[in-house]
Amino acid sequence: MRKISTCILYLFLTGFLLSCDNSRQANNLSPVPDTIRGSATDSTGKIPPVRSKTDPATTETPDSSQIRISVFKNSPQQGGFGYDIFIREKLLVHQTMVPGRPGTSGFNTEEGAGKTARLVAKKILDNTMPPTVTAHELDSLGI
Fold it and tell me: Per DSSP, what are the bridge partners of residue 87?
């Protein structure tokens, strides 16, 4: 009985190790054609911005007149405040919780949500993407 269980164990381990051998599978993969690979980058080797066919100006960095901030009160279940940032009247950021902090609670004050929204809007204007907010930045805003 012991010999049978040892034999089964060896067979199982051998099968497992052989199934992990990727060298046979790698030879069956066809390479990506250069035409596809080359179309993802421009002449500098960087990925070009995606252009909308309906709005060619969507790749331009917005100016301050094209950004609108809206502070709102969250649902009673979540509590606190949040903010929306619109670029050219299209919603770009919908933030219901304090970014850069653990948890899902909203901002304690409307003013705190507004300060953070202005910081994120400034980062968008500076073309800092994604416009992340650090705990240090929240502390400097008094949040």
Answer: 67, 90
Q: Is residue 115 part of a domain?
A: yes
Secondary structure string (H, E, C) spanning the chain: CHHHHHHHHHHHHHHHHHHCCCHHHHHCCCCCCHHHHHHCCCCCCCCCCCCCCCCHHHHCCCCHHHEEEEEEECCCCCCCEEEEEEECCEEEEEECCCCCCCCCCCECCHHHHHHHHHHHHHHHHCCCCCCCCCHHHHHHHCC
Does residue 30 form part of some domain? no
Amino acid occupying residue 115: K
Q: Is residue 44 part of a domain?
A: no
pTM of the model: 0.57
Q: What is the token pair recorded at 105?
A: 């609670």
Dist. CA 46–CA 66, nearest whole Å: 27
Residue 57 domain-assigned?
no
pLDDT of residue 84: 97
Please identify which residue in the block is written with the tokens 């950004």.
67
